[in-house]
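ok trying this again, last paste got cut off
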Amino acid sequence: MAPRANWKGFLRLSLVTCPVALYPATSDTEKVSFNQINRKTGHRIKYLKVDAETGDEVTSEDIVKGYKVDTDTYIEVTKDELDDIALDSTHTIDIDEFVPKTDIDNRYLIRPYYLVPDGKVGHDAYAVIRETIRSMDKVAIGRVVLTNREHIIALEPLEAGLMGTLLRYPYEVRSESEYFDDIQDVKLTKDMLDLAKHIVEKKSGAFEPELFEDHYESALIDLINKKRAGAPIAAKSTPKSGGNVINLMDALKKSLASEKDVAPAAKVARETVKETAKDTAKARKPKKRVEGQREMLLPISGKGGKEAAAKEAISKKADKPVRATTRTKKAG
């Protein structure tokens, strides 16, 4: 089942228009999440909407938006009033201008989306807009309304489609001068910089996100695995402090020496992970993903094969399937 679109409407470049749908390009649903429960009963906590003064529960139809102007004074704004000031970008993404991608400050980037044709019609117009942006090697700037707010969106070709990135407004970006003005202007020697550059060279490589590992997520999964299996939870030992760095040059030399020792092993580890990923991709057949279903890579500790246990757990619709990560963090 395909994910549900966050927004549907039209993409327009002057008189060229096509129906499109906007889908989030990233997801946090695969991460471990928790519910709040009552320690005494084990029941989930339920929140009610109540009047702050009377304490009475308020139904949804009696709840409206209000803008606070004083301690106990609010200006009530109804849904109809908000609909009356709705913008054209509620239903249409109008391309206002084209700018070089390098002109967009990274601080203005919020989150990426995939913009695709909606339905069987409009693919020709979509292709014209996409290839026009591609041929000019620029980014198209438009406007779109999401969650009742108008956002600036930057559109650029991504393979056969378009990727749209929401941008912040200037008033949302804080000035760096508020934070950087007190940074001391220090003098660095050439030897220090040369040593630091050698360390960077030892740790340099290609950007390979498939090798990244969320260590906290892995630790959470391991913790839940152990608790579900009834295994004892060992207390974490306190890490030893490395002490204060007294001599920066000595610290750089020691860092460079340690990188030389680590680099060969890290390289072998990366190559092993790459080969494993390739073999897994070849062996795995593509399958349709069910919305809301999280894939289990490994079962809970116990008897039985990994694949059989994973399928069994999925069929039982476990709240959070336990998975193990075979990737290692890139190093060296």
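PB: full thing came through this time. The first helix runs from residue 79 to 84.
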